[in-house]
From TrEMBL:
<feature type="domain" description="DNA helicase Holliday junction RuvA type">
    <location>
        <begin position="1"/>
        <end position="62"/>
    </location>
</feature>
<dbReference type="GO" id="GO:0000400">
    <property type="term" value="F:four-way junction DNA binding"/>
</dbReference>
<dbReference type="InterPro" id="IPR036267">
    <property type="entry name" value="RuvA_C_sf"/>
</dbReference>
<comment type="similarity">
    <text>Belongs to the RuvA family.</text>
</comment>
<keyword id="KW-0963">Cytoplasm</keyword>
<keyword id="KW-0234">DNA repair</keyword>
<dbReference type="GO" id="GO:0005737">
    <property type="term" value="C:cytoplasm"/>
</dbReference>
<dbReference type="GO" id="GO:0048476">
    <property type="term" value="C:Holliday junction resolvase complex"/>
</dbReference>
<keyword id="KW-0227">DNA damage</keyword>
<dbReference type="InterPro" id="IPR013849">
    <property type="entry name" value="DNA_helicase_Holl-junc_RuvA_I"/>
</dbReference>
<dbReference type="GO" id="GO:0009379">
    <property type="term" value="C:Holliday junction helicase complex"/>
</dbReference>
<dbReference type="Pfam" id="PF14520">
    <property type="entry name" value="HHH_5"/>
</dbReference>
<keyword id="KW-0347">Helicase</keyword>
<dbReference type="GO" id="GO:0016787">
    <property type="term" value="F:hydrolase activity"/>
</dbReference>
<feature type="domain" description="Holliday junction DNA helicase RuvA C-terminal">
    <location>
        <begin position="171"/>
        <end position="216"/>
    </location>
</feature>
<feature type="region of interest" description="Domain III">
    <location>
        <begin position="169"/>
        <end position="220"/>
    </location>
</feature>
<keyword id="KW-0547">Nucleotide-binding</keyword>
């Protein structure tokens, strides 16, 4: 399994990019959103990848973040959603938008993706709503890309050690971050997560997100 490719852009096509890795060119299919974010030919690139294996073909699909890749893999479990339809949904909504639409039951948002009809959009929401919190938790704890730039100063300063955060505090922070990505205001997200944490003191991030969403839902 090829899980990630790092190299240089050979060229950018309508729905794919060629990545030169040590003299070997890999054709990687990407969403419109990912394609428009790419730099030009010759520039460095690093994408998470998912390999689709069929009897007559091997295809690589590329993603800017691990969150986007995991949403792709989850979307592919829905009947009627193939790799291209998944890229269409991710291209139209972005990974955070997909999570928001599914968690809030927004079928019309999923329908906005090209080639996705009302029945398939409804199926996506119905089949993935219970699985969404786990993917949202992954996005909440995903670290930003590591920069390779060197500091201008040559003097090294010892940074103070970061305070140790209890697992329950970390889970609450991740849950609030995930709810923030769904568009909830910080105050209401904090209240919902705090209530969920009081009800289940040892809850992990996924459990907190699921409980908070239930309390935030109309009539919850």
């Amino acid at each position: 399994m090829i899980g990630r490719l790092s190299g240089r852009i050979g060229y950018i096509g309508d729905d794919h990019v060629l990545i030169d890795v040590g003299g070997v060119g890999y054709v990687v299919f990407v969403s419109d959103r990912t394609r428009t974010a790419l730099a030009g030919p010759g520039e460095a690139i690093s994408l998470y990848t998912d390999l689709l294996v069929r009897e007559d073909i091997l295809q690589l699909f590329g993603f800017q973040t691990l969150l986007e890749k995991e949403w792709h893999r989850l979307l592919m479990t829905v009947q009627g959603i193939g790799a291209r339809a998944s890229l269409g949904i991710l291209g139209a909504l972005g990974p955070e938008g997909v999570g928001r639409a599914i968690a809030l039951g927004d079928v019309s948002a999923v329908r906005a993706a090209p080639g996705v009809g009302p029945k398939i959009a409804q199926r996506v929401v119905n089949e993935l709503k219970d699985k969404a919190p786990a993917i949202m938790a992954l996005g909440a704890r995903e670290e930003p890309p590591v920069t390779t730039a060197r500091p201008a100063a040559t003097v090294e300063v010892q940074a103070p050690e970061a305070p140790v955060v209890a697992p329950t505090q970390s889970a609450q922070a991740e849950a609030m971050s995930a709810l923030g990505n769904l568009g909830y205001a910080p105050a209401e997200a904090a209240r919902a997560v705090a209530q969920a944490a009081r009800d289940t003191p040892d809850a992990d991030t996924t459990t907190l997100i699921r409980a908070a969403l239930r309390s935030l839902a109309p009539g919850g």
